[in-house]
Design brief:
single chain, about 90 residues, alpha+beta, Arc Repressor Mutant, subunit A, about 60% helix
Length: about 90
């Protein structure tokens, strides 16, 4: 048994952030569709812009997504390969 708890802690933190239905939906949508801005996400999710932005902030802080400014808007994408693998595994039958 590998007792390198730092490695387990990193993965546990990623799972904690992903353990919310809206954040799972955001990450899954970004993986499937590529880059997307907050306005598009909020209309797809039917959530207020502030709520969508708060979820994105948590995903950014965890190193799951990153934003790239394009004029006045920011386009987000998933930047963590481990997360892509996790999401594809979880939703492989859907």
């Amino acid at each position: 048994m590998d007792k390198d708890f730092d490695k387990y802690n990193e993965i546990a933190e990623i799972l904690k952030v992903l353990a919310h239905p809206v954040r799972l939906c955001i990450v899954k949508g970004l993986i499937e569709n590529g880059e997307c801005n907050v306005t598009h996400m909020q209309s797809c999710l039917d959530t207020p812009q502030s709520t969508t932005s708060q979820h994105l902030q948590k995903l950014r802080a965890a190193g799951i997504v990153e934003g790239k400014r394009n004029g006045l808007e920011i386009n987000y994408r998933v930047c963590n390969d481990k997360v892509i693998d996790i999401i594809k595994t979880i939703f492989k039958d859907n």
